Amino acid sequence: MTRTSTFSMMTGLWLSAAAAFLLLQGCGTPTATVSNNALPFEEAIAVATDGLVQQTRRIPGMPAMLAKVEAKVSKHAVVLDPTLDAGSGQQTAATQQLDRAVTERMTKNFEQIEVLPFRAANLAKAEYLLTGTLVRVQAAYRLNLALVDIKGGTVVAQSSALARQDTVDMKPLPYYRDSPVVIKDPVIDGYVRTSALTPGQKADRTYLDRISTATVINDATNLYNAAQYQEALGQYRSALATPAGEQIRVLNGIYLSYIKLGQMQEAEAAFGRVVAFGIAYNQLGVKFLFNPGSTEFWSDPNISSAYGMWLRQIARESGTAKVCMNIVGHTSKTGSEQTNDALSLKRAAYIKQRLTSESPEVGSRTRPQGMGYKENIVGSGTDDLVDAPDRRVEFKIRDCRA
User: Fold this and answer.
1) Whole-model pTM?
2) Residues 334/379, Cβ–Cβ less than 8 Å
3) For 119-169, how does the pLDDT look when each residue is reduced to its tens digit (9 = 90+)?
4) What average pLDDT does the segment 303-318 reach?
């Protein structure tokens, strides 16, 4: 390749990046404009990755990752905390692809960078932490990457690019597909915020303070995704034993592992702990799936057979805590707003009815509410595994005097 053609290729990439950046700064940008400026996913990854590394040249006091070295190359260690879907907090086929592609591109194109797996031992020796998210933006996904100075806790570089929706596979990985609850908590929220911060800002403290435990959780989740359930259970228990281990991802992982191992009594107790945690932090969204257009639970017993146990534990734990709750029904974004508002209210009322049959006292403390698709987490309207978090029932703590 000639010098001229190389320059032309790089200019094209940077123009695409600039267009994506300017697009993201605007307000009220039409969907067609977003779609027209979005890149195929692989190209968007390349633009965001190169843009992130190029920024290191412009950061005062930071070693230039791209500086040419005459003799021996001095490598800068970067640990990649696996990327997430920002809306749901899930790892998906696309985030897995993003992790691989960013690692390969950094390692191949920038010899001064060494990308290390997300392990506690690597955090101790690495200079930088890399986070990344995919954010649904109208007809596309915004890819955010942020590089954090581990010692200082400051974001030193951040880049974004737009990827075409039809090139991004958001099917959740097994742990998230099987999860009965929406995996969102302050740690996940902190990760998502960090990936979008501008250089010079401090990374989220809640997220960084729990980063070592996150490596153990990641190992456990990888084992679960590989169907090594006994090993996953042991690793989730190890995470729970750490000072920062009581997180929804850990408690949920213990429940899921017991289910896969067929240990149903232990699984029910574990789900009760998930519910108690959600009530304590007012973050309990349960993925009850219904038959289309009805208030009947999904007909496939492989999916809905555990629902009775879930309801039993929700009634028990909320009764023990003596809390009052709004039972909030949600739907995916298909059909009219009026139809979905009515349907979500009927489903919330059905959940209230089932809880009342478990505990009349809990029934008197709950109030059904329908939100339709106003508070979608994913918003794809695909009515499949991708937008399952949108078809959830939330339990929101309220003042009993209200």
Assistant:
1) 0.86
2) no
3) 999 999 999 999 999 999 988 999 999 999 999 999 999 999 999 999 999
4) 95
**Do 50 and 162 form a contact (C-beta atoms < 8 A)?**
no
pLDDT of residue 125: 92
Task: Count CB atoms within 10 A of the CB of residue 207.
Answer: 24
pLDDT-based confidence at residue 287 (cuts at 50, 70, 90): very high
Q: List C-alpha distances in Å: 73 to 57, 76, 111.
A: 16, 10, 8
Cβ atoms < 10 Å from Cβ of 312: 18
Q: Are 380 and 90 in contact (CB under 8 A)?
A: no
123 in Cβ contact with 79 (< 8 Å): yes
Could you give the CA distance from residue 202 to residue 153 in angstroms, rounded to a whole number? Answer: 6
**360: alpha, beta or left? (left if phi > 0; alpha if psi -120 to 50):** alpha
- Mapped onto helix, strand or coil, the DSSP state of residue 327 is strand
Are 124 and 116 in contact, with CB atoms under 8 Å apart? no
- Can you tell me which residue has the tokens 């979500």? 344
What angle do the packed helices 337-358 and 307-321 form, to 10 degrees?
70
Model confidence at 35, pLDDT cuts 50, 70, 90, reads low
- Which of 174, 395, 156, 130 lies closest to 287, judged by CA? 395
Cα 70 to the center of its chain, rounded Å: 42
- Check: CB of residue 288 under 8 Å from CB of residue 297: yes
Question: Which H or E element spans position 369?
Answer: strand 366-370
